[in-house]
């Protein structure tokens, strides 16, 4: 594979990881460093505001990175998307447009754009194949974010078609791991469960009540697996179509809750409040395209949860 050589052979190549402090970006930085890449260009938001076109232009003109991994984004849950729709569409469109366009103009060899599984229609077939994109209406609660991410995929495709720019896109499933958001109000299901079981354990509570029946099926990918896939794609993929990145393993919310309970060591009871809504019955990515390129997830959910809880205990203020 001639293309693999170009990315993996030059460990001193300058790589700009945008969003290096987030859940995804920080994992990608860890992965690149562990592989011996020595020339990572990293900027905090205070040092470089990616929504400002002129600042992004001058950064690229000065630094001239060879590779760009775009993991910077404005992200949030349903409540945040409902409250700040303008932020979610505008900030994400600005970041993507500035970084993708400047990358092309300043001779970047390869760019990888990271999206999310929420780009797919609300009633997409399960497991969701890549070609389900734009085949139906989106989930209304996060369409602002989803529309921006879809535009990012299309922009990468357009710059490939018109300019021959090697820009690819990867769409991860639900992620978890070190640097996740454990905020009480706006965290996702997995960190929220971990936080609640930990609190119950510390306070000696008798039970933890979880919304719904526990029957919906979900897919979770440890962020270090995603980072591994991203680096693999940088070396082994140059196609027009975006690529799903998932674990390919489904778990019910009930199984997830029981596993988190076990990892945290909460001895009390787990109670399901079935008067509360369950959400989508099933959400799983079709990962066969990535498997055919030669990559599969390696971290089991149990091992990933143990790793994440260890990070939580060491890093989250109790």
TrEMBL record:
Pathway connected to this protein: Nucleotide-sugar biosynthesis; GDP-L-fucose biosynthesis via de novo pathway; GDP-L-fucose from GDP-alpha-D-mannose: step 2/2
Name of a matching Pfam family: Epimerase
Domain NAD-dependent epimerase/dehydratase intervals: 15-246
Catalytically driven reaction(s): GDP-beta-L-fucose + NADP(+) = GDP-4-dehydro-alpha-D-rhamnose + NADPH + H(+)
Keywords: Isomerase, Multifunctional enzyme, NADP, Oxidoreductase
Family classification: Belongs to the NAD(P)-dependent epimerase/dehydratase family. Fucose synthase subfamily.
Protein name in UniProt: GDP-L-fucose synthase
Source species: Corchorus capsularis
Taxonomic lineage of the native organism: Eukaryota, Viridiplantae, Streptophyta, Embryophyta, Tracheophyta
